[in-house]
Amino acid sequence: MTNISTGLAHAYRALRHRNFRLFFAGQSISLIGTWMTRVATMWLVYRLTKSAVLLGTVSFAGQIPTFLLAPFAGVLVDRWNRHTVLVWTQALAMIQSLALAFLTLTHRVTIAEVLILSAMQGCINAFDMPGRQTFMLEMVEQRDDLSNAIAINSSMVNLARLVGPSIAGIVIAASSEGWCFLVDGVSYIAVIASLLMMRLPALNPTALAARAKRAGNSMVTQLKEGWDFVRGFVPIRTILLLFALNSLMGWPFTVLMPIFAVQVLKGGPHTLGFLMAALGVGSLTSAVSLVLRKSVRGLLKMIPIAAVIFGAGLVLFGLSHVLWLSMMLLLVVGFGMMQGLTASNTIIQTIVPEDKRGRVMSYYTVAFVGMAPFGSLLAGTLAHAIGAPRTVIISGICCILGGAWFFTRMSGIKVVMRPIYQQLGIIPAMNLSQLQESATK
Questions:
Q1: Does residue 256 form part of some domain?
Q2: Is the dihedral of CA 53, 35, 166, 95 positive or negative?
């Protein structure tokens, strides 16, 4: 029993930090509303238009601003107070959700207004995502707890992914999508309150001087510096390339879920909620498995394995016409998707220098969210031409090929990462004989 208790305490060690506990509590509430809104938006668009193309178009409108603005946002996040950035992004996101709720509940909403408000959320996300990712280290303070904080955050996101769509399906079936948007808007109060309650230590003189220096440089100079680092640093470049491929070809399958629910599986909003909940269970299982890890050591190999699992799950899901089987396959899809996402995030945040963290995480945001609009548009267009099942099968094959490509780059990535891990104390330093032995393997 003592060993179990010790293991659980280790698994949730990032919660020792007061600021992270506050963030965890606020986000746990807010993210349920966020996932309700995502499902409700998909269903609202499909109800208004019955169009696969417009499902992809709305998703495109919500994500393309992130693609365009995230690199600039990364520069500003490296200059500004990240805590203040997050307070503002959460407040603006609350306004966006409440506006959507008002239009829907008063029966004034049109597809044009959904497009505009989705684009507004995309602009907010361009600042919120790199800001939230870089603020993680400030909340936990100790780098050793960073990987655990990222894994716990992923668990929180996926628990909300499990609960939110299920509630959304019930609410939509009982009333309308507008109540989902209203719940989401109100839920932002929790995360804003948690941010305002935090007690953050003052930056040390070195950090203040570095921030002042960055603020003195032109944005073009800092953009180039961040791009040159991402392009020239093999581990981050390779991880982000696979990440971008999965985002472009794999993840947009979610915008086609209403079509699978109605046309393929012959259901309604409840069916959509079940499918999204199954995806959430798989993702949550993956995130919990990462919470239990004691170190980032060995995590690199999970990135291509996860891509192959994700792709294989998509191929089989595209072939299924039975609800229970589709839900089982979405467990596999969710597991692979979240394993790759969290493993990539954890490794990048571990090896990136602090002075470039905001800019590097902005490119992570571009790869994660920024490529998705093109994927959503492509998925919607392909689904219109060849059907949603065939579209998802093609997406899965592309993800499998991406994972296979990453495997061929593993040895080169390990050579570059080994001295960084040794410097951080993640792995012991090798003596000369060990280095020679490692080089022959």
A1: yes
A2: negative
Secondary structure letter of residue 299 according to DSSP = -
Q: How far apart are CA 72 and CA 314, in angstroms?
A: 34
Least confident among 226-230, 263-267, 356-360: 356-360
CATH number at residue 236: 1.20.1250.20
Total residues belonging to the chain:
441
3-class DSSP assignment, residue 285: helix
Instruction: Give the Cα separation of 16 and 29 in Å (integer).
Output: 20
Q: What is the pLDDT of residue 214?
A: 54
pLDDT in tens, 283-306: 778 877 777 777 777 788 899 999
Which of 305, 310, 303 minimizes the C-alpha distance to 253? 310
Residues 43 and 261: their CA atoms lie apart, in Å, by 10
Q: Which domain holds residue 265?
A: 11-440
Cβ–Cβ < 8 Å for 176, 106: no
Give pLDDT, residue 4.
Answer: 44
pTM beyond cutoff 0.85 = no
Residue closest to 350 by CA, chosen among 74, 128, 133? 133
CB 219 within 8 A of CB 69: no
